[in-house]
Design a protein that fits this description.
The chain is mostly helical and 125 residues long. The chain has one domain (26-122): Cytochrome c-like domain (Cytochrome Bc1 Complex, Chain D, domain 2). The chain contains 6 helices and no strands. It is globular, with a radius of gyration of 14 Å.
Length: 125
């Protein structure tokens, strides 16, 4: 299922149910500790890419646009903007959220871990 179709389906379900999924409240300091799992592949300095792209400035950015990094076609074509909801879904299971992307990491299963990392990512400029 493409991202657009999946997003439309989720929006329709939420509209019908009236429910809006709430994300856990994150702690950036705890997120920095959780991020250590990510640091082998991702730098936090702008323009410093490793196996994965730098995550400096990722919050609010369009997916697949960090200059100087070669992204998968799936990620470049996703149309995703990295907000809390998109990051939460991606961090939970990258390969399911964007099929065809190259990130080998299986995801962060813990909701609180994801919320903490998202808050940490917001601090990176």
């Amino acid at each position: 299922m493409t991202f657009a179709i999946r997003s439309l389906f989720v929006s329709m379900v939420l509209a019908v149910s009236g429910a809006v999924p709430a994300l856990a409240q994150g702690d950036p300091e705890a997120g920095e500790n959780v991020f250590r799992r990510c640091a082998a592949c991702h730098a936090t300095q702008l323009g410093q890419h490793r196996v994965g792209p730098s995550l400096a400035g990722v919050f609010g950015a369009e997916a697949g646009t960090a200059e100087g990094f070669r992204y998968s076609d799936a990620l470049k074509a996703s149309g995703i903007v990295w907000d809390e909801e998109a990051l939460d879904q991606y961090l939970a299971n990258p390969r399911v959220f964007i099929p065809g992307n190259r990130m080998a990491f299986p995801g962060l299963r813990g909701e609180q871990d994801r919320a903490d990392v998202i808050e940490y990512l917001k601090t990176l400029e």
